[in-house]
Amino acid sequence: MTPRVLSGIQPSGNLHIGNYLGALGNWVKMQHDYESIFCIVDLHAITVYQKPEELRAKVREIAALFLAAGIDPLHSRIVVQSTVAAHAELAWLLTCVTPMGWLERMTQFKAKASAQESVGDGLFQYPVLMAADILLYQANIVPVGEDQMQHLELARDIAQRFNSLYGETFTMPATRLPLVGARVMGLDDPTAKMSKSASGTGHAVALLDPPDRIKKTIMRATTDSNPGVDFETMGPGVQNLLNIFQAFSDWSNDQMKAHFEGMRYGDLKKQVAEMTISKLEPIQKRYAEITADPAYLESVLKAGADAVRPTADATVRLVKERMGIYTETT
Ligand code: AQP
Questions:
Q1: What is the tens place of the pLDDT at every residue in 262-286?
Q2: Number of domains in the chain
Q3: Are both 146 and 239 inside the same structural domain?
Q4: Residue range(s) defining the domain that contains residue 309
Q5: How many Å lie between the centroid of ligand 1 and the Cα of residue 37?
Q6: Which helix (H) or strand (E) holds 282?
Q7: Euclidean distance between CA atoms 139 and 170, whole angstroms
Q8: 197 band by pLDDT with thresholds 50, 70 and 90
Q9: What is the DSSP code string of 160-173?
């Protein structure tokens, strides 16, 4: 049987090059080797407040970006999480087998909760919903950025606990990190990961940023006090710029060193900006074409949900049976 890949992105802000290099770009490269399901996880996004109008628009924007980046809807399923009710249903069933202590250890919850005035229980339960997304489809491989590794570990723990309580039910999912680009850092602060929800114009390059803005953001990126690139002593800002270039170009470490060693920071930034613009421009062009045909986008999302629903429903039925929950027999 062809192994199944599943991953998702929250429609919680503007997709940035971290999301692309850590996740979306790799999905495009690997999709044809697997049976692939890529989700727009709107139920995750509402774990922090989203303006309803913005959320509605973001779901479509991100679906269009998936297609523009190269997800092939004839092969891969693009699914809006909330359109397949089994995600939420399995999340509840798994919540009941997940010890609170496991969730209390999640670093993303601690970081996000400390930035909120009032923390909804959904933010705490977020990793259980993510486990449900994955286990619902018995996914074999989950390609994500480094920040999601702890959540993936938890999904495996939940699957294992369920299997040992109720009998072999779930496939163990493996994490797949990209070789380069697994953790793109903020351009204004290379000690923090590039994030959709971080404020400030110098922080991230969004996939839909126009070329002049991309250039401006990268030219202003934080570096260090060295006169130029020194692979032995470089700080996190320079390392981050080189990472971005390498992830976009697929250059080897030797190529990177031969080309950039000793280069002045102004030239380094110019080349990183040019590389980024050259990779994002075709995506932006396709995005404009796709969004000109809203009916097409809706049809892709409907086809995606319709295709995966039987598998999702079958898993929930099995889980309920295993747990002794009432299931209709007719
Ligand atoms: N900086 C990053 N570097 C590499 N990969 C990243 N990812 C996110 N940021 C980086 C990967 O992108 C996928 C989708 O992420 P998400 O939307 O589910 O949530 P997130 O990781 O929490 O993304 P953000 O940008 O930080 O959004 P907010 O600010 O809304 O929380 C995942 O595979 C993730 O690893």
A1: 999 999 999 999 999 999 999 999 9
A2: 2
A3: no
A4: 4-177+294-323
A5: 18
A6: helix 265-291
A7: 9
A8: confident
A9: HHHHHHH-S--PPP
**213 C-alpha vs ligand 1 centroid, how far in Å?**
21
Which residue of 40, 50, 196 sits with most ligand 1 atoms within 8 Å of its CB, as the best mutation to test the pocket? 196
Kindly give the number of the ligand 1 atom that is closest to the alpha carbon of 197. 29
Supply 192's token pair: 């923090």
**Dihedral angle over CA of 185, 187, 192, 195, nearest 10:** -80
**Looking at ligand 1, which residue's alpha carbon is closest to its atom 35?**
145
Pocket of ligand 1 (CB under 6 A): 9-10, 12-13, 18-19, 21-23, 144-145, 147-148, 182-184, 193-197
**Tokens read off for 69:** 């980046």
Average pLDDT over residues 211-234: 96
Q: Which atom of ligand 1 is nearest to the CA of 194?
A: 1
- Average confidence score pLDDT of the chain: 96
Confidence of residue 115 (pLDDT cuts 50, 70, 90): confident
Instruction: Give the CATH number, domain containing residue 18.
Output: 3.40.50.620
Cβ-defined contacts of 154-163 (< 8 Å, 24+)? 154/102, 154/103, 154/106, 154/127, 155/127, 155/130, 155/131, 157/102, 158/94, 158/97, 158/98, 158/102, 158/128, 158/131, 159/131, 159/135, 161/97, 161/98, 162/94, 162/97, 162/319
